Amino acid sequence: VPVADDVPAALAGRARRSAKTDWADPARLPRIRTRAGDRALPDSATRRLLGLLAAGAPEVADVREHCDRHSLAEFSWAVFQRWYACGAPTKH
What we know:
Elements lengths: L42 H13 L4 H7 L2 H17 L7
């Protein structure tokens, strides 16, 4: 699946590395597709999304509007499984 050129504003820019999300490598997670389903978010946008999720940021709602819900569900489940496999640390 080709990488999307347009991403939600909340996911634009360079993602910062965080100990809270280092265990969740975007390359090892299901790709999140755009609502049309013909493109996927780049790894940088996925890493930024992981940071927003860890922070409980309200911008996550914008991502839901831009992305395919089925691929978001697959991604969410995979993130949970990786977190659990890491021992489900409560600081995350």
